[in-house]
Inverse folding.
């Protein structure tokens, strides 16, 4: 064959889809605990993911994604299994998404039937969002960086994307959320979501493969790394499910209620109880000089049947929320008049007051965040909060 023709064929082949297949995985840690593991097989036109996570409870997924020549998603089929689900609909579902340039059609099938809903996307990159599915976050980053006339965003530029949630129903309240990929320069990328407080930081290589992801600047404080070997998802999933069934650890940060009576007054505090998991708490998991939800997930709520004074703050009967601001010199308690909100939705204008709490170190670390109300007599008691090696407290007086 003449040499010019060989060169032409080689050039044409280079312009077409690559035929190589990548096999790898992602592991996500929360402190010293593994919270998700993913097994990925990737070609230029498809991605197959098998993953298991326990965020907040154990779910196993098998996902097949078809990709266009530009890396955009064209179709997704996801099988979701939740071993601890109380109904057959909760235990298993199939989610199919069909993508066009300006819309996505989502179909969810479970034992309760079939639900469908179409969304207009205005041409924005649209992807499924699962908290612990990092192959899709990798796709999200790479596709965003390819948008526009240039093949990559310049440093400081950003590109938007839209998201839907395969783990949720698609009733009237189901909406597409959004986010942005920011190219910092070099190998650093910042990911922001409009529903998540803070941002994630990813490191990518020259082929836009994600090497690591950190959620330390967000409320999802995970550390994710790419692994070359493909993990045994079936075995890991079985261990996760067995541990969940054995200890009843249905959630990473279980919801609990501390209840007590001071005289005839009943007090209940509803709060999320995160685990320390070997992490540095004050100054890291709990940043200094920022309002903390004082627990996990939804805001911490206190309900009292009669007026109280907590640390000098007058608290009317009813339901309110508790917040704290840790500092290197101590900690402040905040009682807020709003209730029922998520733990990132703090409105200072609704504060009932703020007061310092007593702070001390404990000899035996407390792994799970614990709030208690300890009565001392018919009119007095003490509010305490313990986690790791710190113990905060404030006096309670029944008015």
């Amino acid at each position: 064959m003449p040499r010019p023709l060989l060169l032409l064929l080689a050039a044409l082949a280079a312009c077409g889809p690559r035929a190589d297949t990548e096999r790898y995985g992602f592991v996500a840690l929360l402190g010293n605990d593994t919270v998700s593991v993913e097994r990925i097989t990737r070609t230029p036109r498809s991605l197959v993911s098998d993953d298991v996570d326990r965020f907040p409870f154990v779910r196993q997924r098998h996902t097949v994604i078809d990709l266009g020549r530009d890396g955009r998603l064209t179709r997704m089929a996801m099988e979701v299994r939740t071993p601890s689900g109380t109904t057959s609909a909760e235990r298993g579902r199939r989610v199919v998404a069909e993508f066009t340039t300006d819309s996505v059609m989502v179909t969810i099938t479970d034992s309760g039937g079939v639900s469908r809903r179409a969304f207009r996307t205005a041409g924005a990159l649209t992807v499924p969002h699962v908290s612990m599915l990092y192959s899709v976050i990798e796709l999200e980053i790479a596709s965003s960086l390819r948008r526009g006339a240039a093949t990559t965003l310049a440093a400081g530029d950003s590109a938007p994307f839209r998201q839907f949630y395969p783990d949720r129903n698609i009733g009237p309240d189901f909406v597409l959320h959004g986010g942005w990929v920011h190219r910092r320069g070099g190998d650093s990328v910042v990911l922001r979501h409009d529903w998540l407080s803070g941002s994630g930081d990813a490191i990518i290589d020259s082929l836009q493969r994600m090497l690591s992801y950190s959620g330390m600047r967000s409320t999802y404080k995970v550390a994710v790394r790419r692994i070359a070997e493909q993990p045994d998802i079936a075995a890991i999933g079985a261990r996760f499910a067995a541990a969940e069934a054995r200890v009843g650890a249905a959630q990473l940060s279980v919801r609990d209620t501390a209840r007590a009576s001071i005289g005839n007054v009943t007090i209940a505090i509803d709060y999320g109880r995160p685990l320390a998991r070997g992490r540095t708490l004050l100054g890291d998991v709990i940043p200094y000089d920022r309002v903390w939800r004082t627990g996990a997930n939804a805001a911490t709520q206190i309900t009292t049947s009669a007026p109280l004074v907590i640390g000098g703050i007058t608290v009317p009967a009813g339901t309110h929320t508790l917040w704290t601001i840790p500092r290197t010199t101590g900690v402040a308690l905040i009682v807020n008049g709003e209730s029922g909100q998520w733990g990132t939705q703090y409105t200072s204008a609704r504060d009932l007051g703020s007061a310092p709490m007593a702070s001390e170190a404990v000899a035996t670390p407390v792994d799970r965040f614990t709030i208690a109300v300890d009565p001392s007599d018919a009119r007095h008691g003490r509010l305490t909060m313990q986690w790791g090696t710190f113990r905060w407290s404030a006096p309670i007086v029944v008015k």
